[in-house]
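User: Can you fold this complex?
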Amino acid sequence: MLNRVRSAVAHLVSSGGAPPSRPKSPDLPNATSAPPAAPPQAPRSPPARAGSGGAAPARTVEARASFSRPTFLQLSPGGLRRADDHAGRAVQSPPDTGRRLPWSTGYAEVINAGKSRHNEDQACCEVVYVEGRRSVSGAPREPSRGQGLCFYYWGLFDGHAGGGAAEMASRLLHRHIREQLKDLVEILQDPLPPPLCLPSTPGAPGSSDSSQLVGPQSCWSSQKEVTHESLVVGAIENAFQLMDEQMARERRGHQVEGGCCALVVVYLLGKVYVANAGDSRAIIVRNGEIIPMSREFTPETERQRLQLLGFLKPELLGGEFTHLEFPRRVQPKELGQRMLYRDQNMTGWAYKKIELEDLRFPLVCGEGKKARVMATIGVTRGLGDHNLRVCSSTLPIKPFLSCFPEVRVYDLTQYEHCPDDVLVLGTDGLWDVTSDCEVAATVDRVLSAYEPNDPSRYTALAQALVLGARGTPRDRGWRLPNNKLGSGDDISVFVIPLGGPGSYS
Amino acid sequence: MLNRVRSAVAHLVSSGGAPPSRPKSPDLPNATSAPPAAPPQAPRSPPARAGSGGAAPARTVEARASFSRPTFLQLSPGGLRRADDHAGRAVQSPPDTGRRLPWSTGYAEVINAGKSRHNEDQACCEVVYVEGRRSVSGAPREPSRGQGLCFYYWGLFDGHAGGGAAEMASRLLHRHIREQLKDLVEILQDPLPPPLCLPSTPGAPGSSDSSQLVGPQSCWSSQKEVTHESLVVGAIENAFQLMDEQMARERRGHQVEGGCCALVVVYLLGKVYVANAGDSRAIIVRNGEIIPMSREFTPETERQRLQLLGFLKPELLGGEFTHLEFPRRVQPKELGQRMLYRDQNMTGWAYKKIELEDLRFPLVCGEGKKARVMATIGVTRGLGDHNLRVCSSTLPIKPFLSCFPEVRVYDLTQYEHCPDDVLVLGTDGLWDVTSDCEVAATVDRVLSAYEPNDPSRYTALAQALVLGARGTPRDRGWRLPNNKLGSGDDISVFVIPLGGPGSYS
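Assistant: Here's the predicted assembly.
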């Protein structure tokens, strides 16, 4: 998430806030008490000194949070120091000994080249058991049902303007998903279509008058069919929102600074759900074929949504921004001339006469990795960022950001997968310098060098992908074999096998 | 557009309005004075009696407009009567003698089975010359430039709640496009990239003060590249908007009743631009391969846009509608129970406790052809509908409708087309009962029965497509060979050859 937030940090720091304190337990049932996030910090501050307190029972709240890496890495104090070393940029993976990640998932990560103090990516990989709430029908549970559900879960969280939001999301988002699924445990295991209406929850008011009922008669005679799959999608969507709301509630006490992109995979009842909010990406490589499983949400891809919001709610622009896009900044001397522009309805461009309010800064500007909302942030979906404001202004940016993911579904049962078929998740540190085809080529090259039943092959593949994006130090930079610059960003990769040794069936 | 507007007509009729009068000349330069649209009429009124005044110089304003069919059909008085006969439903095409449509374009149409008084589809096919405005650079025009531009134009307009909007659009939309292109004549013929800024138009204010300039510095150093293609897209988009605004201005005097979907093709400088607003559709069939060239805009495909608008501007819902979607109408007795729903952010479904305001009618309801906005209209983009209101209410629906098309571009120079490669445009009367594959099969079957250089083959193909969607009268209805019901709607089809005898090169 390097370079994707400008100017935000000064505001975060200047916004005061309580001193770092031990967080209260999150709102969620069974939430384990977890280390608090790091306090506000400048993303370009120098790397932490090696040995400054990275041991497991950290000396201060700040130090503990600063060095937080995924627990499945099982990092020793020395390993933690190496993981935090911007000079060496050692690739980290779970140890080859002991318990593997579910499905023999491969994982590798590397810290950035020094542009933020710590690695602001976080990751989570869990098997989550969902116990049903008492029978939703209100009747005593039948013995054959209510057996609970298991889902497999992988998450990548790419933080910006601090590591707090990514850390919190990596710790709690899957619990929000579990909460949302609790009501569905029986329904999802029932071959019948989901009931459209459930009896009231205890204490809910009963039927009431219908004085608010309007005149028009129903225009549909039958009812809409709702699938089990769409219930899981809805559960994941709402879990993202509740996670974001929790961050908003707890941001003062817990110092949940910054925000994060979230890319999450849920495997449940034969289907893989890929939920993405931000600019991380997921692809399936199946028999050499590439199947995109996500879409990036950036100021460019969401330009029209952002412009529409600015147009409908001009108060959100604070008189400082215009919802129109121009191909470059309009100069005062150009007043009265005609400049190319496009608005929320247009994909093409046209000329308009420049008026005084067109001199305001455009809500959306820039191209590619330099595209920004309100000259500040380069991603438009994700979690957190509740304190994010425009530089030299108090204008909040959060209203333009969406916490909702796009969820794509892949039915694992529709295809007989071989051990070389994988789902690859990566933060933008991977994708900025690696094409889908290059990933597919690496998949082929690395996996063919291992026996199909060797469970370490997916970790080796994740490492190869991270190394291929990082490059090696040469000519005052990290460079790829073709001498182009490697990624100086944090890089994190999951490789999830879709068949073979880690079989889930 | 059958069955796509409920309840609207009563309001249109009851809204009064001036008596039918000769329209003043439209706002556009060179607009020909044209017959006024028909006055408000019930779409399900009985078919007009044959011979009730369909001759070319009609006896009354109403009669003239009622029978308006595309001029390129060159219908005789008798042909006009047959075209208006719901019982026979004779397929109409341009005569095989005399001047052909540009590119030997094929066209066929048929009236509905009696559900609206007249055929509410309209069509237009023109070659339009665009004369540049005086040199946009302000300098005297160079002799080598300013030669003007030609574009080829095809439009299908599927009216609802009356034929006025479709008739007006078929007469004027290409003129709006021409107006938008006038400023671009030089720019589009210049191999250099379009200038981002043009000198001020005469009488425009010069440079002014920059007191409104805000603080944030530009986040982009370079300027965005704007292509010639995106200028044409912008011109078409703005032409749709100006057409819609003209309808709004003139709807009283001219009786522009109802609204229409618009599907338009522009061929300019080697590229085909397909602009669609509504539920008509366009596909290219190329060497047997199907290339979709449009997307339908309906309450289902635009649900989230509509819900977002209702959420951000609740006053548009008038306290009568809820922006939430439910799988069926919520009953008052279900208050306090939990019902499946989804909001503007969700693609999945979840349960929520029913509260009083959930008993309001949903903004979007129904499925497939029965889906409706505000229980009234089944398409969400198009032109007109300025008077459309919710039944038993004064709530306007127009704010939820968009007049902007989606424009897709196809570069004709990137592929060597053969005479069997065609672009097929059809109103929903075709697509409701015909799949893309069936269209492709008909393309293959009909064209292979004709010599490649026989220019009548595309008309024969259009006729075959219309006949295949209409069916034949049998068992108290129009039935297809498989005994399913044919389309009872108006059906209109253009077949545009992309290579071969009608070559444009």
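The two ends of chain A are 36 Å apart (CA to CA). Residues 302-375 of chain A form one domain.
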